[in-house]
Amino acid sequence: MLITRLVLKNWRNFRSLDIRLRETTYILGPNAAGKSNLLDAFRFLRDIAKTEGGGLQAAVSDRGGISSLRCLHARRDTEVLVEVELAETPDASPAWRYVVGFKSEGKGAQRIFVSQEGVWKDGEQLLRRPNKHDDGDHDLLTQTHLEQIRANKPFRELAEFFNKVRYQHLVPQLVRFADRIGGQRLKEDPFGQGFLDQVALTPAGTRDSRLKRIEKALKLAVPQFEELKFERDDIGHPHLKARYKHHRPLAGWQSEEYFSDGTLRLLALLWGLLSGDSVLLLEEPELSLNDAIVRQIPLMLRTAQLGRKVRRQVVLSTHSEALLSNEGIDGRGIVLLEPSSEGSTARMPNHEEAVALKSGLSPAEVLLPKTRPGDVDQLRFFG
User: Fold this and answer.
1) Which domain covers residue 250, as residue numbers?
2) Residue 242 CA to its chain's centroid (Å)
3) Does residue 10 sit in helix, strand or coil?
4) How does pLDDT run across 136-187, given as a tens digit for each residue?
């Protein structure tokens, strides 16, 4: 199942947003246009769907409270709203629709109250809130039905889908020095501090199969790379080890502590594509990678799905010319963010842009120049 439509109201940068999504969707825009904030809307749905350690109150609190979430351009209507439609294919009629709106209590403890919540399946409405139960006990509106096991039985499939959404923005230093850093990890470990633990917890057969596929890719991308394996050290800590060509057969092995930033990020990207069948959110996957590799990311996203029963939906943010130079990118899967005095807006390629893309021009040629700050040339006079 895919998320085929996202609607936002008063969400961070966006006073209003309504976009369509494909199996792979590329989010483009200048700095501070809201690329990360758009991705966070999917993470928010994941967080409110959690039955333990999550829910609406925690999801809003973890983001700094509703004052941090609500768009600064919201005026009379202060409701924050997230709505999605899900279908089996990008062009199919919605199988599911979910909407949640919420506001601040406005007094006392400043709790968050559900202003509206609705669920539709194949066009039939299964849930509409507030309802008569909410009218009788206003405190019920501090929780969504999505997060309540007793209440979400008719649409638990939807809650489980949201719960599996994954975000990846691996920070290589956190992988290399995870044992030394220690301490408490952020929920869902978005920056990869526990990446090696994820690999370790994967069943051995599945893990070895994935690592073999990744090994083949690394041989093509990393000079002198020969072999990749998983092992534990004497005290049980998990490690990834790579062997490079060397005149002494046993001298070419290195652990992840010595991997380059690019190797670690590429390895994690490939692992993420191969693990799970939920929505995968990628923030600037081009970081630390050579442009020649970055140009292949769109094809990697496609080929990683070959032979899989369930194709994984990928939503990624980027401003990489190399990545967007791939002519194989489907223009229908591009969303362009445009800042304005009333907050950021989002649009798909217009008619002229779509024609240019179909004629063989790449998104880097047609769309990326439109994300260029107007006065960027003045930076040369800094200082």
Assistant:
1) 167-276
2) 28
3) strand
4) 888 899 999 999 998 999 999 999 999 999 998 888 888 877 766 666 666 6
